[in-house]
Specification:
mainly alpha; Penicillin binding protein transpeptidase fold; two-stranded antiparallel ribbon; globular
Length: 228
């Protein structure tokens, strides 16, 4: 009986904690729909007493080439998915079952959810929560707002967040003035922002950027879901 009572107390506690977290999540989603958000990495730096650099800008203040390059590099299905690229996710799961080489399946919406609400690292639990949050964000925010938030919280170097701060540090210009090559170099730095320096790219980085630049030139529809 004592064990059952303890289990019931723990279950109720977990249930209330879950409800509280959902309320906090919903409140932050509403708040971040109108104000510049703060990512978990930014919060961690503040707690540690470290500074970070970020200048939040509206989507209209970012060069279209930069927006298209990030979508082409990070999530080609951004305009058509519901927050999750189910096809890519299925491929990853199939590769895992077959012990083949796996590739990432995170959409821009999923990365936004991770940056704003979750912790670094990889785990099945975190990925499941990330997917659920991405689906919620896909319903709560417009594509333009999701992309605007992502471009303002993405990490582009140690203590460097957002495309405006990145454009100023690496190319000494505003994000609105980025050209196609600079945009592609910034976009292809995102998977490894600590090691990839857009201002001094390695040969591999240059090749990746050239590929994204070509993809942007050849692709249509990358920006169809965004206001003109």
């Amino acid at each position: 009986m004592a064990r059952r009572s303890l289990f019931a107390i723990l279950a109720r506690g977990a249930g209330w904690a879950g409800i509280a977290l959902l309320v906090v999540f919903a409140g932050l989603v509403g708040l971040y729909s109108v104000v510049p958000p703060v990512s978990t990495l930014m919060l961690a730096r503040m707690i540690e007493g470290k500074k970070y650099e970020r200048d939040a800008v509206h989507l209209r203040s970012i060069a279209p080439a930069a927006i298209a390059s990030v979508i082409a590099s990070e999530d080609e299905t951004f305009c058509s998915n519901d927050g999750v690229d189910w096809g890519a996710l299925h491929e990853v799961l199939s590769s895992a079952r077959g012990r083949g080489r796996s590739r990432g399946a995170s959409t821009i919406t999923m990365q936004t959810a991770k940056n704003l609400f979750l912790w670094p690292g990889r785990s099945v639990v975190r990925k499941a929560i990330e997917i659920g949050m991405a689906l919620a964000l896909g319903k709560a925010w417009s594509k333009a707002r999701t992309l605007e938030i992502y471009l303002n919280v993405a990490e582009w170097g140690d203590g460097l967040y957002g495309i405006e701060a990145a454009a100023r540090r690496y190319f000494h210009k505003n994000a609105s003035d980025l050209n196609a090559r600079e945009a592609a170099l910034l976009a292809t730095a995102l998977p490894n922002p600590i090691r990839r320096n857009p201002a001094h790219p390695t040969a591999l980085h240059v090749r990746l950027a050239a590929g994204v630049e070509a993809k942007v030139g050849d692709s249509s529809g990358l920006l169809d879901c965004l206001p003109r």
